[in-house]
Amino acid sequence: MPEMPEVQGLVDFVGRRAHGLHVTKAAVANIAALKTYDPPVEALRGAEIVGATRHGKFVDLTTRAGDGGELHLVFHLAKAGWLRWYDALPATVIKPGRTPIALRVGFDDGSGFDLTEAGTKKSLAVYVVRTPADVPGIARLGPDPLDPAFDREAFAALLAGRRTQIKGVLRDQSIIAGVGNAYSDEILHAARMSPYALAAGLDDVEVDRLYGALRDTIADAVATASGKPPADLKDAKRRGMQVHGRRGEACPVCGDEVRSVFFADNSLEYCPTCQTGGKTLADRRLSRLLK
């Protein structure tokens, strides 16, 4: 799943490449992906791209029509979505229901992009709105972890009283925006903390350590993604992972074997030596450490 660093990379790339271009094509191939009807997607045609912004894991392309009015093309790539950029947009006709393409956008210099989604479970979402706050998912977002206003005290206030496993807190977009399964594994590994630790049970030293790991891990990943074209972002993400997606490999910090806990539709990875005092976590969502 694309998370904040990769989404920021997409925003930087598309914002730089498409700025000042005019939309000539906005074709929806998967009607289920389009979550809004007013304004219609056709209203984007002829509009100029004037900005690109990220809200959590949402990409927001700001357009300006000839009358000066703004419209926002907002999309969330969900678990299996991606943006495929073309310097020369293909001329092939998109056949709805027979393609992984959810949306195709073309510009007046011949370039453009497709939003694609792999697999049979389709969750990619596209919105055409007058203001980003009209997107329910954006309206519910918690603070951005790289916002200068998100200091250690603000972070501690979010954790206080939450008898929730810290892995779930980091992934909850209404608490902290932009962090998902992969980077929460990386943050907890950097903080030397069990994913099953309760947020409300952390002492001041642990909060300090977790806050530093959160900010540093995300900032480093954003810096790595910066300037890379969409085609390179996924590989850059994988190369930067210390534990996520590395089950069975040696932890780069201590050399212990990276372990996994499997759930219904995903898994988490961790290092027992670095994070759980050498104990292996049971493979159940609500389990405590094995005795």
Radius of gyration over C-alpha positions, nearest whole angstrom:
20 Å
Measured between the Cα atoms of the first and last residue, the distance is: 33 Å
What structural category arises from helix and sheet content?
A: alpha+beta
Summarize the main sheet: 4 strands, antiparallel
Low confidence ranges: 287-291
Class of the largest domain, according to the CATH hierarchy?
Alpha Beta
Q: Tally the structural domains.
A: 2
What's the CATH superfamily of the largest domain, by name? MutM-like, N-terminal
Strand order of the largest sheet: 1-6-7-5
CATH topology of the largest domain: N-terminal domain of MutM-like DNA repair proteins
N to C succession of SSEs:
HEEEEEEEEHHHHHHEEH
Shape: elongated
* Average pLDDT for all residues: 93
* Fraction of helical residues: 25-40%
Counted beta strands? 10
Strand content: 15-25%
Number of helices: 8
How does this model look, in words?
Residues 242-276 form the FPG-type domain. Belongs to the FPG family. It holds the Pfam family Fapy_DNA_glyco. This protein has 291 residues and is of the alpha+beta class. The protein folds into two domains: 4-139, MutM-like, N-terminal (N-terminal domain of MutM-like DNA repair proteins), CATH 3.20.190; 152-275, Helicase, Ruva Protein, domain 3 (Orthogonal Bundle), CATH 1.10.8.50. The chain is 27% helix and 21% strand. It has helices at 4-18, 136-139, 152-159, 166-171, 181-190, 204-225, 230-240, 272-275; strands at residues 23-28, 48-55, 58-64, 70-76, 81-86, 101-107, 112-117, 125-129, 259-262, 267-270. The strands form three sheets. A four-stranded antiparallel β-sheet has the order 1-6-7-5, covered by helices on one side. A four-stranded antiparallel β-sheet has the order 2-3-4-8, covered by helices on one side. Helix 1 packs antiparallel against helix 7 (230-240) and helix 5 crosses helix 6. The longest helix has 22 residues, at 204-225. The protein is elongated and about 60 Å long.
